[in-house]
Amino acid sequence: MGNKIPNIKDLYACLQCGYCRSICPVYRETGWESLTPRGKVYWLKQLSAKSLLDKLLGRKIEITDEWMQKLFTCTLCCRCESLCHVDIKFHEFWEDARKWLVENGYGPPTAAKDMYENIKNPEFKNPFMEPTAKRDEWYKDDYDLPAKAEVVFFPGCMTSFYEYQVLLNMLKIMSKAKIDFTTLGSDEMCCGAINLMTGQFDNFKEIATYNVGQLEKRGARTVVTGCPGCLRALKKYSKYVGKSNFEVLHTTQMIDRMITEGQLEFSKDFKKKSLPIVYHDPCELGRISELEGKGIFEEPRRILNSIPGVEEVLDYPNNRMNSECCGGGGGLKAVDYELTTKITARKVDEGIELEANTIVSSCPNCKAQISIGVEAKKDEYKAKGEKFKMKVMDIADVVAKSI
């Protein structure tokens, strides 16, 4: 092996207590101890130094492709950190471990490598092989945006290419509030979050330098994004390119500010047939952002409670810091797509138990993932000759329908 395993102290601090196992979404669906946080920590510890028994028996502890896949079989939801008795910083630990594997020639999974190459490709600048011109084709004819503005909206790849209705709704909201804003349009590049999640750090500085340059070219003082992954990546840019002259906000923070300052008023009731609403806390927006300094929990709830016609916003049994992952995080789809759908199915089933008609989140990836679960549930009901109705909406969708 090349460089040493990172975070050695954490490997020896782990008590192997198993508390993390009880709340790990991957373990809950698979039952494999080797896929639990403590199982992975134990294996890394064994790899870092052979025990006396290993030496006496001549056992080799080495990385295999199978084990590499296990380390990447994780949503990076970091519920393990919220319950860790020895305070291991798993939101950094897992990214560091993946980076270490990649630097030593192991992984990431093929699909993650392909995403990395697509981001590097100037024809795409995104992980999905979508042409750059498609980023702003949904709105460039309807919104005559200025070349420069103090507020720059950074939609992110998922919103730009697949959840474009969220993009259009956010543009509608900012226009209604008379915000002076623009976007990077086709000049926007993937934020690089997928690189960090999959251990492919080597061109993250290049991505950061490029996007910061484009934002400064627009005269940005505030950068707004609706993607929690983009939010975290944009905030990390300063570590690679120096402190920027702009603040980074999530759309819920900005919308909450608009409402508080009287810039945004509602004129329509939320449809009664779509009630009640249950709010899902995205891992990266809430728990992980809290572990990094400030979680965004109350702003989305304040927004939803201010919508006319919404009398109550339901919460999942496990919410805020204890929110359960939708299944779409950590690049897990690139490793085991079927596993992600099983995790998502539980989230949908919990919504049904709460008798919610609409699941609302503040993350385009969560919206897309939970929508997959809802569609699967509709097919399940249809096979039984029954109807199933449930909507999945981003908070920007809800707000846009009420202004």
Provide the low-confidence segments as ranges: none
The SSE string, one letter per element, is HHHHHHHHHEHHEHHEHEHEHHEHEHEH
Q: Could you report the average pLDDT, rounded to the nearest whole number?
A: 93
What would you call the structural class? Answer: alpha/beta
Helical content (DSSP H or I, runs of 4+): 40-55%
Instruction: Output the CATH topology of the largest domain.
Output: Rossmann fold
Task: Give the N-to-C terminal Cα separation.
Answer: 58 Å
- Structurally, the number of domains stands at 3
Specify the number of helices: 20
Give the overall form: globular
* Strands, count: 8
The largest beta-sheet arranges its strands as 2-1-3-4
Q: Specify Rg, calculated over alpha carbons.
A: 22 Å
Sheet having the most strands: 4 strands, parallel
Structural overview:
The chain is α/β, with parallel strands linked by helices and 403 residues long. It has 3 domains: 8-103, no CATH class; 110-260, 3-Layer(aba) Sandwich (Rossmann fold), CATH 3.40.50.1860; 272-401, Rossmann fold, CATH 3.40.50. 48% of the residues lie in helices and 7% in strands. The protein contains 20 helices and 8 strands. It has helices at residues 8-13, 19-23, 25-30, 37-48, 52-57, 65-72, 79-82, 90-103, 110-120, 157-161, 164-176, 193-197, 204-217, 228-241, 251-260, 287-292, 298-306, 337-353, 364-383, 395-401; strands at 151-153, 181-183, 222-225, 247-250, 277-279, 313-315, 358-361, 391-394. The strands form 2 sheets. It has a 4-stranded parallel beta sheet with strand order 2-1-3-4, with helices on both faces. The protein has a 4-stranded parallel beta sheet with strand order 6-5-7-8, with helices on both faces. Helix 11 packs across helix 20, helix 13 (204-217) crosses helix 14 and helix 18 (337-353) packs across helix 19 (364-383). The longest helix has 20 residues, at 364-383. The model has no long low-confidence stretch (mean pLDDT 93).
